[in-house]
Specification:
This protein is mainly alpha-helical and 169 residues long. The protein has helices spanning 46-53, 69-80, 88-103, 108-115, 127-140. The longest helix is centred in the middle third of the chain and has 16 residues, at 88-103.
Length: 169
């Protein structure tokens, strides 16, 4: 096992790199855990890192997703648009949000259109994050068709110089 380099040589400026190179490749999964990159992979192995990247989901098994109107809607959208298919914790969480919107009065076809819009190009976030943003934006808007969501325009009376029987344009 190789000893760690002195702390003053890790200032990030690249000094002394040639002197500090490995004599050969470092085997993955060795005693150093992180190998050449020096990342903080624990003794639990790569499975622990994968679970941590997945948002802390337990590595022991799948996340339980109960059926609800929102989950059903998201699964139907995923069936029609495979690139929008959500699973696991993301499906559970976004299904809860979609169920709330449906319960507030959002019509299914309109919510479908909000969720199923094409993904941005280039995709810089996960599909779950994109759908989450769309659902949050919808939640901030008034419910379509409700008294709060209807753009109530007061009745416009014709002006004094307009003959009601003729078009006043």
């Amino acid at each position: 096992m190789r000893e760690a380099a002195p702390a003053q040589r890790t200032d990030g400026r690249g000094g002394g790199i040639e002197e500090d190179q490995e004599g050969g490749p470092v085997p993955a999964g060795g005693e150093q855990g992180g190998g050449v990159t020096g990342d903080a992979t624990s003794a639990a192995g790569p499975e622990a890192k994968t679970a941590a990247r997945a948002g802390g989901a337990p590595a022991g098994g799948p996340v339980r997703v109960d059926a609800s109107p929102g989950v059903d809607l998201l699964l139907a959208i995923g069936a029609d648009h495979p690139e929008l298919l959500l699973t696991g914790k993301t499906l559970r969480d976004q299904g809860l949000m979609a169920t709330g919107l449906l319960g507030a009065g959002w019509p299914v076809p309109l919510l479908w259109e909000v969720i199923a819009r094409p993904l941005p190009e280039p995709l810089r976030k996960t599909v779950g994050a994109v759908i989450s943003g769309r659902l949050k934006a919808a939640a901030l808007m008034p419910v379509p068709g409700s008294a709060a969501g209807a753009a109530v325009v007061p009745h416009q009376a014709p002006g004094p110089d307009c003959d009601v029987s003729a078009s006043c344009q």
